[in-house]
Amino acid sequence: MSAGAVRSLESRATEVALHRAIADLAREASIEINAPEIKHLAASRSILPAGKRMYVSHLPKQSWEETIAATREVGVAGFVPIPHVPVRLLSSAETADRVIGALAVYTNEVLLIAGDYAQPSGPYASTLDLMRTGLLQHHGLTGVSFAGHPEGHPRVALDEIRRAELDKARWIEEAGLASSLVTQFFFESAPFLEWTNTLRDAGVRSKIVAGVAGPASIAKLVRFAVRCGVGRSLRALSSRPNVMTQLLNEHGPETLLAELAQARLEGGVSFDAIHVFGFGGFLRTCEWLQRVAAGDFDLER
């Protein structure tokens, strides 16, 4: 066999391995659902496998009762619900006890976030304030997810963000709870991979989950990106409009997944999974995940 033929076979084997790694990321991905999208759960059962991890968002002006009801419905549909709990919206210790207790009936894990509110409405300014009360363990929760910000936060100093990420990861480990650090979505892999390595070097053993923007219009994604402080990767992609169009059109971010999958194949970067944000397009995101998990995607788009 000629050297050229050997190189061709090696190239094909590398391509097949990358394709399979991308499909694996999609197959293992968690997904997000908003309370108004609960009506689509029945349809999603024919698209997603049972046991899929499904984060239940808590939208502005949404009541705790709506979040609790949505969490219940996700569980009834055969998925694993992980409800968002913005702790700054918990108006009192009694409210926190009631909400965490009600959610614990339907799940063993919550996603704790401070919430983008200037002032807390009760005694919890940060997620650690709530975690230190022992409410999670008191109500039998065994896991907690918390937010990661590889590119920082638009309203919080970077050193404060980094310190909080480490403090939460260490506290959760000492408390004996399983933990997942789920990032804000991003459009470029390098900042996320650098951040992941920094956390691992600091001894963080939480699962690290890469937040990925699912298929949506460019205008919608840029609007959410500006609001959420996705700075470095958005600026990089804005300077490369052809790449931005490729990543953010209705076909989904396959190229970004390829970068993440390649990093996994090469080793040295130990993130655990991806999480897909749907931005109000739950069923469309479900269908896209199903296609990619089945290997039905084209990296040349």
Quick take:
By secondary structure, the chain is an alpha/beta fold. The two termini are 33 Å apart.
Keywords:
8-stranded parallel barrel; TIM Barrel; single chain; about 300 residues; 13 helices; alpha/beta; globular
Can you describe what's shown?
- The chain is globular, with a radius of gyration of 20 Å.
- The longest helix has 26 residues, at 3-28.
- It has a single domain, classed as TIM Barrel (Alpha-Beta Barrel), CATH 3.20.20.220.
- 49% of the residues lie in helices and 16% in strands.
- Helix 1 (3-28) crosses helix 12 and helix 1 (3-28) runs antiparallel to helix 13.
- The chain has helices at 3-28, 41-44, 64-76, 93-104, 127-131, 135-138, 158-175, 189-201, 218-228, 232-238, 241-248, 254-266, 282-293; strands spanning 30-33, 53-56, 80-86, 109-113, 143-148, 178-186, 207-213, 273-277.
- The chain contains 13 helices and eight strands.
- An eight-stranded parallel beta barrel has the order 1-2-3-4-5-6-7-8, surrounded by six helices.
